[in-house]
Amino acid sequence: MQAIKNFFGFAGECVLVFFRSLYYLPTLPWQFTRLMDYCFNIGYKTMPMVSIMAFFLGAVLVMQTGDSLEDFAGANLYLGRISGLGMSRELAPLISALLLAGRVGSSVTAEIASMKVYHEIDALKTMNVPAERILVMPRLVAIILMMPIVVGVAIFVGWYGGAMAAAHVPFIAQPEEVYWANLKHVVSFHDIIDGQIKGMIFGVSVILIACTQGLNTKGGPREIGMSVTSAVVASMVIILFLDFVLTRVLM
Amino acid sequence: MNHTSQSIRVGIFFLLGVGLLLLMYETLSDPRVNSHDGYTVVASFKNLRELKRSDEVRMAGVQIGNVLDTDLVDGKAVAVLLIRSKFQIPQDSEATILTSGLIGTNYVAISYGDSHEYLADGSDILTVESPGFSEVVAEIGKIGEQMDNAFKKLDSTLSVFAGGEGEESVFTNLNALITENRERLNTTLINLEQLSSDLVNADGTLNRLINDDAAYNQILAATENLTLVTAQASDFLGQLKSTDTAMGALVYDDTLGGKVRISFDNIESFTTKLNSPDNTLGRILADDALYIQTQETLEEVDDAVEQFSGGSVGSAAGALSNGLF
Question: Would you call A156 an interface residue with chain B, using a CB distance cutoff of 8 Å?
Answer without folding.
Answer: yes
